[in-house]
Amino acid sequence: MRLGILGSGSGSNMQAILDAIDAGTLDAEIALVLSDNPGAFILERAAKRGIPTAVIDCQGFKTKFPEEVQAATARQLHEAGVDIVCLAGFMRLVKQPLLDAFPDRILNIHPALLPAFPGVDAWKQALAAGATESGCTVHYVDAGMDTGPAVLQAKVPVLADDTPETLHARIQVEEHRLYPEAIRVVAEKLGV
């Protein structure tokens, strides 16, 4: 199975996927890594492993992911033979035509137990709401923000002395375990 990764930051979830591949627990290869941030560490991580990378030019938009750019991104992913697209800290909303190009083949990981706390800084939202548990969700991407059906979830307790940093760190441990597992589940369903 060939994976395409879209990320905007450090790529710690991509690293977890690579670690699972290296350990033999995920039968996959990362075919292409794309980022909308030319300085993102995810590109450096991929390049060190010899994985092809490219920067997505969002035409100067800070948050918008223009339709024609999504179409070009879909073409790049198809040309790389990608079976499943994994968003790993990608900070733009994916919509058509990218969704149409990879129906039920785009996954995202979110640091909350969706549908609770969608959007940015979910761990801060959980603390502000007084939640007693949080966690992470790997879900299919649809046209909404963190609204697609869940593939897998993992829970972590919210401790009385948690800060945003401590809760986020505990959630990230589960993210790194859960994402490769969810990719296996989806690949099995798709037969790839």
From TrEMBL:
(6R)-10-formyltetrahydrofolate binds at K64, M91, R92, L93, V94, N108. It is an enzyme of class 2 (transferase). One of its GO terms (molecular function) is phosphoribosylglycinamide formyltransferase activity. The keyword Transferase applies. The record marks D146 as: Raises pKa of active site His. It holds the Pfam family Formyl_trans_N. One of its GO terms (biological process) is 'de novo' IMP biosynthetic process. It comes from the Bacteria. Keywords: Purine biosynthesis, Transferase. It catalyses: N(1)-(5-phospho-beta-D-ribosyl)glycinamide + (6R)-10-formyltetrahydrofolate = N(2)-formyl-N(1)-(5-phospho-beta-D-ribosyl)glycinamide + (6S)-5,6,7,8-tetrahydrofolate + H(+). Residues 1-183 form the Formyl transferase N-terminal domain. The keyword Acetylation does not apply. The active site is at H110. InterPro entries: Formyl_transf_N, Formyl_transf_N_sf, GART, GART_AS. One of its GO terms (cellular component) is cytosol. N(1)-(5-phospho-beta-D-ribosyl)glycinamide binds at G11, S12, N13. Pathway: Purine metabolism; IMP biosynthesis via de novo pathway; N(2)-formyl-N(1)-(5-phospho-D-ribosyl)glycinamide from N(1)-(5-phospho-D-ribosyl)glycinamide (10-formyl THF route): step 1/1. Its EC number is 2.1.2.2. Belongs to the GART family. Catalyzes the transfer of a formyl group from 10-formyltetrahydrofolate to 5-phospho-ribosyl-glycinamide (GAR), producing 5-phospho-ribosyl-N-formylglycinamide (FGAR) and tetrahydrofolate. PANTHER family: PHOSPHORIBOSYLGLYCINAMIDE FORMYLTRANSFERASE (PTHR43369). HAMAP family: PurN. This is Phosphoribosylglycinamide formyltransferase. It comes from Luteolibacter ambystomatis. The gene is purN.
